[in-house]
Write a structure and sequence with these properties.
6-stranded antiparallel β-sheet; 4-stranded antiparallel β-sheet; binds flavin-adenine dinucleotide
Length: 279
């Protein structure tokens, strides 16, 4: 679902970034679109995605003691990075096997599950600086992570084009990594909708001790609520699913309904986790 951008471009290798400067007008970076709600109609920006050689992940030799390093371009899927971690006996990214999307999207969103997030694993980031037309390597504390956010130079508003990341994992027996991944996958299967079109959790969880967003939505009786083709999942109330030809506008209206009900019933103002690309 969603509208049409000015243009769609894929960058296939590191040398391809020079050509981005030739494209007219602003653009946004697309990972795999698993955390996006894109408006209907014409979109006033282009969309750029990493492809080809920029979807690779590889082990980095030389980690001392229990340190296991792994490097990847941002276009690779997070699941592929988690599988590489399994292959080389790097623990800490087991949760990544459960999260759809690219490494770039995971970094931008500080994706996490089962009490862990990707942020603490990141040693360095390579970003593309469009003004200079060059890459820049960032090391801590030039970047930091918050709840579903990445800040560069102290600002989470600046949204750099993430090209590559170096992750530091901890040596762990691959059999144990596999067991943890299997447990996470089973838990997810039991608690979240699968085989449906969704954009993951729509709202961020409010700070403790307020119950999670899904619980508040459930208590407000919103499971199964439907507007057009958009429905609040019956399996997990914080997942809104496309049950057939939903428009973005169906989703926006359902989001407004859910927010209004939760505010009225629980006095909690929910903020969006899913990112909206407005036309
Ligand atoms: C079924 C389902 C389950 C989910 N479960 C979880 C979960 O457990 N935990 C969780 O945290 N999230 C979850 N999500 C949300 C989503 O998977 C994550 O946010 C994911 O990290 C987004 O990655 P993406 O590549 O799809 O990013 P997109 O949705 O394409 O983009 C998200 C943001 O990242 C930016 N971005 C993407 N790539 C780059 C790049 N290379 N450089 C700069 N910016 C970039 C985009 O511009 C956008 O701002 C779930 C989603 C679904 C559909």
């Amino acid at each position: 679902m969603g509208g049409t951008p000015d243009y769609f471009a894929e960058v296939f290798h590191e040398d391809g970034f020079g050509e981005l400067a030739l494209l007219n007008g602003p653009y946004r970076v697309l990972g795999r679109g698993s955390n996006l709600l894109v408006d209907d109609g014409k979109l006033p920006f282009g969309v750029v995605r990493l492809a080809g050689a920029l979807t690779k992940v590889w082990p980095v030799v030389g980690g001392e003691g229990d340190a296991v390093f792994l490097e990847a371009f941002s276009g690779v899927s997070l699941r592929a990075v988690a599988r590489m971690a399994l292959d080389i006996g790097g623990g800490g990214l087991e949760f990544g096997i459960t999260i759809p999307g690219s490494l770039g999207g995971a970094l931008r969103m500080n994706a996490g599950a089962h009490g862990q997030e990707i942020g603490p694993l990141v040693e360095s980031l390579a970003v593309f600086d469009p003004k200079k037309g060059a890459f820049r390597e960032l090391r801590k504390p030039e970047f930091s992570f918050g709840y579903r956010s990445l800040s560069v130079g102290g600002s989470s508003d600046e949204s750099p084009f993430l090209i590559k990341a170096l992750l530091l994992l901890t040596r762990r027996d691959p059999r144990d990594i596999r067991t943890t991944m299997d447990a996470f996958l089973s838990r997810r299967k039991a608690t979240q909708p699968s085989g449906v079109f969704s954009c993951g959790c729509v709202f961020k969880n409010p700070p403790l001790p307020i119950p999670p967003a899904g619980r508040l939505l459930d208590l407000s009786g919103l499971k199964g609520a439907c507007i057009g083709g958009a429905m609040v999942s019956k399996a997990h109330a914080n997942f809104f699913v496309n049950v057939g030809n939903a428009s973005a506008s169906d989703f926006f209206r359902l989001i407004n309904l859910a927010r209004t009900r939760v505010l009225k019933d629980h006095g909690v103002e929910l903020s969006l986790e899913v990112e909206v690309w407005k036309g």
